[in-house]
Design goal:
This protein is of the alpha+beta class. It contains 4 helices and 9 strands. The strands form 3 sheets. Strands 2-3-4-7-8 form a 5-stranded antiparallel β-sheet, with helices on both faces. β7 and β8 form a beta hairpin. Belongs to the polypeptide deformylase family. Its EC number is 3.5.1.88.
Length: about 190
């Protein structure tokens, strides 16, 4: 078990399209385990490889819905399809956070349904249909693989506030990270 440092906005890997995973081996499985441990320690509901400084098309997720159903997995080389977005302002109960912009949350409209097709850490393909918050989580993590942070999708009023926080914390440039369990930052 290893808790990995999480990159903060401004690190180039967070703003670039990630490369496909080609080797399904013990190193990949160990990386996935470390990512799950880091996600839980943060605590978060998802973590993408770019957030730990690796430009790979890989994320992990773990979320329990209101009915007690646990949604967890590893998505390697995922593809994601979503329903059309509503054209409306986001409600406060749609506020998201991101481990790469620690401590901040803002409301964001996301698609209400998503279909994820991916491989697990052993290379086995799978498909998941998601709704509600689970669909939101998959969209958020998938965005990381394409160099997009949730703050990039925010309406201007919220984006401006997040950019101000990034500037005040001297983030927004390479070299900033935090380690769950060691640093006094939280999502």
């Amino acid at each position: 078990m290893a808790i990995l440092p999480i990159c903060i906005s401004g690190e180039p890997v967070l703003h670039a399209v990630a490369d496909p995973v080609v080797d399904f081996n013990d190193d990949l499985r160990s990386l996935c385990e470390d990512m799950r441990d880091t996600m839980h320690e943060a605590p978060g509901v998802g973590l993408a490889a770019p957030q730990i400084g690796l430009g790979l098309r890989l994320f992990v997720y773990h979320w329990e819905d209101d009915d007690g159903v646990l949604h967890e997995g590893t998505a390697v080389n995922p593809k994601l399809w979503i329903t059309p977005l509503d054209v409306r302002d986001a409600d406060e109960d749609e506020a998201e956070g991101c481990l790469s912009i620690p401590g901040e949350r803002a409301p964001l409209v996301r698609a209400s349904e998503a279909i994820l097709e991916a491989q697990d850490e052993h290379g086995e393909p799978y498909r998941v249909e998601a709704t509600g918050w689970f669909a939101r989580i998959l969209q958020h993590e998938y965005d990381h693989l394409n160099g997009v942070l949730y703050a990039d999708r925010l309406p201007q009023v919220h984006q401006k506030r997040i950019k101000k926080v990034i500037k005040q914390n001297h983030w927004g440039e390479p070299g900033h990270s935090w380690t769950p369990g060691e640093d006094d930052l939280e999502d």
